[in-house]
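Researcher: Quick one. three chains, 757 residues in total.
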Amino acid sequence: MGLEFATGRLADAVNWARKFSLFQYPFVTACCGMEYMALWGPRYDVARFGAEFPRFSPRQADMLMVVGTVTERQGPVLKRIYEQITEPKWVISFGVCASSGGFYQNYATMPGIDHVIPVDVYIPGCPPRPEAVLDALIMLQEKIQGGRGWSQRQYWLERERERLGLGGEISGSGQRSAT
Amino acid sequence: MTTTHDGETQDLTLVNMGPSHPAMHGTIHLKLQLAGERIEHAEVNIGYLHRGFEKEAEAHCWQQIFPYTDRLNYVSPMLNNVGYAMAVEKLLGVTAPERAQYIRVIVGEIARISDHLTYMAAQTMEMGAFTPYFYVMKGRDWLWDLLEEISGARLTHSYVRIGGVAWDMPEGFKDRALALLPRIDQIVVELDKLMTRNRIFLDRMQDIAVVSAEDAVSYGWTGPCLRGSGVAYDVRKAHPYLIYDRMDFEIPIGTDGDNMDRYMVRMEEMRQSMRIISQALEQIPPGPILIDDKLVVLPKKAATYNTIEEMINHFKLVIDGIRPPRGEVYSYSEAGNGELGFYLVSDGTGRPVKCRVRPPCFMGMAAVEHMITGHMVADVIPTFDTINMIGGECDR
Amino acid sequence: MSRTVLDKLRQRFEASIIETHDFRGDETATIRREALLEVVTWLKERNDLELDMLTDMTAVDYLEQGNDPRFQVVYHLYSVSKSHRVRIKVPVPQDDPVVDSLCQLYKIANWLEREIWDMYGIRFKGHPNLKRILLYEEFVGHPLRKDYPKERRQPLIRRPEPEIAQVLARRGKARPLPTATE
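Model:
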């Protein structure tokens, strides 16, 4: 009890605030963009989850939502935008093309964006129903609350390693994908 | 960056727009060289969504290509499905039954309304008006509910088959569709009231990016963009296909060829599409929805599981594919953006030698450099929106 | 469907036409490479034909069928005023894949020819700006040719962070980073 308890509670509070105020950067490329538009509409209102307004600049965003197929040509662009987003940041791979290439397995498409950037939540579907995306958003919020996002884990684990004076093993639970 | 302009040297600023464009139009990269706010030189780079449609088509059977066609113009997938099915049927020399043709027209026109509504949402939102976007999303979800009833999916339906359509209209579909049309019309009326005489909207759209009729034809434009420039070419009227010759509708034609005309053409086309849908729903006859040709259409499931001949038939069709005769066809239909053509080459096997899509918005994008040069940066967005570039179709 | 365009074409350019057909009603003429510019200019400017729109232009690779010449560049022309169409095909050999450009006649030919160069490697003489349009400049090869394997990727960028690869290896989910030849 004491300092660890306080910092633990503080981390929880900070994560609580983060999860309910996600500023998304919608990296929209293809057909999933249509479901993304519907998600933002009045029926599947994503604003009630706090992820209200897309910030169209990576400097102002903290969640990168890669929507649709990413081609090899688009790869460096995606990487640059991911690097421009300030930490802590999370990545949702929306749709099966962004997760694994989808059914476009050819010379032009990247077989999943995790060949370029680390992904927190994968949403399969072609395109996924908006309900699946909301499920994924809730899953991401649970991840954020637990401090298990890729960029969060790095931060806290580096702190742990510093504190213990080790170059420790990175452990943690695996990533689940949305259904 | 310096260049000469009217004999003087000027410093030009290079501004990149894209390729991750903050609009839901996909991925376009514009390299603009500006003198102040005015664009002196523009370069348009497409291809950031090139997904290899043709290469995939050459590796799949004829009937397996339908999901790929869905994702071409992904705001109106039914129209692409119908266009491709018509192309393969032309190659085979068969015609879908009448009821299937009516259903194709109905779902095609619902998709066209959905396409134009999405255009309205994107156009207005990117110019700063957020309200029409929410009205449109409301209406579009209703339309997609209808399409989901009939095909099973909200967006990428793969509903049309070679020789007809996959499933018949469910019970009560006609009543629900007829009940929905006035509500969609109400949304179109609201959009009209909000935007069409809005001073700011008019300032940004009228007399911007004027394209003459000769230029439009030389750029290969078709569809609402060409009709906005005053050329009365609509595939449904010039070369009627399916049952469009029995429908009573008009095609709106613009006069000036500016952004406002292209917007107004699409606004009016939605109303005409609603007329077509209600007429088709009244006239639709009963009957089969797939042709009775065992070399083209999969046999019924009950027969497939119980008789050996039907099972072998099913097997051959799925594994080897439909075998059209040797030859080549070019089949065209009116999609949301214009003449969507499919050029198919067959050598008698189950896979195409060539499956080319003639993308209508590719032609639109080719003209953008010419259209925005001389205008201001703020004019790029409305101009680019009126082309209604859909990445999946432009880059394939 | 009457073969108005083909009949007039045959009267005027008998020597340059290799063959014609109208399979399923599509009037098609295969002509010699050298005559392309002359034929298309005539088709566009003749008053009773007025084929003023280049609807589409593409190429087909007949490697698997063993055709010689290997490629065919296919033009679809349409007349907005007269509502008739014609398809012109031009055979192009593999060792000399050059065709005249139609940029002076139709503005859309600029981009359509760039796409054919990108996908098939057929050059267009007289094109002002023949560079890739759908793929990136670093790409080597022309993917729609039949001898280009569909799944050969040429990635521009892959994740270099060794930490992630180490983490995955420790969890037994190691995945080698793809190389350019896969």
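The first strand of chain C starts at residue 17 and ends at 21.
Researcher: Thanks, that's what I needed.
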